[in-house]
């Protein structure tokens, strides 16, 4: 018996080889699906972080301001305050417990409807994320000699300091408590490293000096969507008013 040779060019196919190629294609498909799924989750996380936290943060902070039951800022210009601006020593609150809301911040440069709560502490979980603006514990309280230092997000969670780079020298930064208006004026801005705690000290320009002025400092992350640096705005108290006297003209007139 003779055995015929296979036609030239024809190759026998190994069942094991076919199974190996199918397995490789299956693994590639699974990896591709996992990458697509991961991409979807990543996009969902970014949307939640950049958009939904703002929606929730704005709503929560507005509710906190409303819950304070203070006289709302008028939409039309009211009569002039009943007393002249005061530049003597203002009343000063005692530093409250952690996460207690004790004031609001109004910045005419950021719009007539801008008013955000200020609470004690600057930790993200307890204050900055759920409540808005935080007061650095141990720094001066509003109106006191020293440096009333506060911090807020520039992006996400309502981003209360989103427009901080728009502030210029002379702009009003107004703090309101239940009984007192404190009207500060922006003096300087600077960009520093996160470790530069000098900026929230009693005298930021000279850490060795004894405080004699009533200052305010706003800090936030810089640049946008990064925590590599801090953008800092400094100001000094211009005057104060009791809330019973009416509203500062900076609030009603946009000065």
Automatic annotation (TrEMBL):
InterPro entries: Sortase, Sortase_Class_E, Sortase_dom-sf, Sortase_E. The active site is at 153 (proton donor/acceptor), 221 (acyl-thioester intermediate). It comes from the Bacteria. Keywords: Hydrolase, Membrane, Transmembrane, Transmembrane helix. Residues 1-20 are annotated as: Disordered. The keyword DNA-binding does not apply. The chain crosses the membrane at residues 23-51. The keyword Transmembrane helix applies. GO terms for molecular function: hydrolase activity. This is Class E sortase.
């Amino acid at each position: 018996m003779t055995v015929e040779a296979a036609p030239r060019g024809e190759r026998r196919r190994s069942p094991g080889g076919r199974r190996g190629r199918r397995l490789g294609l299956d693994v590639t498909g699974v990896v591709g699906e996992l990458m697509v799924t991961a991409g979807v989750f990543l996009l969902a996380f970014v949307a939640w972080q950049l958009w939904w936290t703002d929606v929730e943060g704005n709503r929560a902070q507005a509710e906190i301001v409303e819950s304070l039951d203070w006289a709302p800022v008028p939409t039309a210009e009211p009569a002039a305050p009943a007393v002249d601006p005061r530049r003597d020593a203002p009343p000063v609150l005692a530093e409250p417990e952690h996460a207690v809301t004790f004031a609001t911040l109004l910045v005419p440069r950021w719009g007539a409807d801008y008013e955000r709560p200020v609470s004690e502490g600057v930790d993200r979980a307890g204050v900055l994320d759920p409540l808005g603006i935080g007061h650095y514990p141990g720094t001066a309280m509003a109106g006191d000699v020293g440096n009333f230092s506060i911090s807020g997000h520039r992006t996400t969670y309502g981003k209360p300091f989103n427009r901080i780079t728009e502030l210029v020298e002379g702009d009003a930064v107004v703090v309101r408590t239940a009984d007192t208006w404190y009207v500060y004026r922006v003096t300087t801005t600077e960009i520093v490293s996160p470790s530069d705690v000098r900026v929230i000290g009693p005298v930021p320009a000279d850490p060795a000096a004894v405080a004699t002025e009533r200052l305010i400092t706003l800090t936030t992350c810089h640049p946008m969507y990064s925590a590599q640096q801090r953008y800092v705005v400094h100001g000094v108290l211009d005057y104060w008013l009791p809330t019973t006297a009416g509203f500062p003209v900076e609030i009603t007139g946009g000065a």
